[in-house]
Amino acid sequence: MPQVVLVNPQIPPNTGNIARTCAATDTDLHLVGPLGFEISDRYLKRAGLDYWPYVKLHYHKTFEAFKNLHQERGGRLLGFSVRGSSNYIDYQFQADDWLIFGSETTGIPPTILSACDTTLYIPMAQPGVRSLNLSVSVAISLFEARRQLGYLF
Fold it and tell me: Which pLDDT band, with edges at 50, 70 and 90, does 47 fall under?
């Protein structure tokens, strides 16, 4: 089952909404610090509603700490960026993929993006729009991966 990785998320309600999506799909959620908020933030908890007991939440203080887990488990690192090289819809997802997303303000740092096996983008029709909301991007990507892998109910 693909896993979701948020690198340096800054906006608690976005992370809370992503946690709800992960809870609903039984998907592990990895938060890589530094975070722009405390895990105990009330807006984070509020956005996640009462689903927190269903969230498989993992916190890694640094990307290096996350990389240690990744090396143990294996799988491809797929970085999502507006400057990705492949359209996510044309990509063939695998069960052990890690879907990596950067912060709402700066995206994935270049050093982390270069560590990814590939970079993907979500196409947008309006060139004047810089990006989609982080929680929307995660949901779109995760559900496409799950659809391809036959994980939809």
Answer: low
- Superfamily grouping for domain 3-148: SPOUT methyltransferase, trefoil knot domain (3.40.1280.10)
Half-sphere exposure for 150 (CA within 13 Å, toward CB): 0
- Nearest Cα to Cα of residue 15 among 48, 56, 49: 48
In the chain, domain spans = 3-148
pTM of the model: 0.93
Alpha helices (H) along 2-151:
12-25, 42-47, 63-73, 110-113, 134-148
Residues 74-90 have pLDDT tens digits of 999 999 999 999 999 99
Residue 48 DSSP code = T
Contact 117, 77 (CB under 8 A): yes
Name residues whose C-beta falls within 8 Å of residue 120's C-beta, 6 or more positions apart in sequence. Answer: 78, 79, 80, 81, 84, 85, 86, 87, 88, 91, 141
Q: How far apart are CA 44 and CA 61, in angstroms?
A: 18
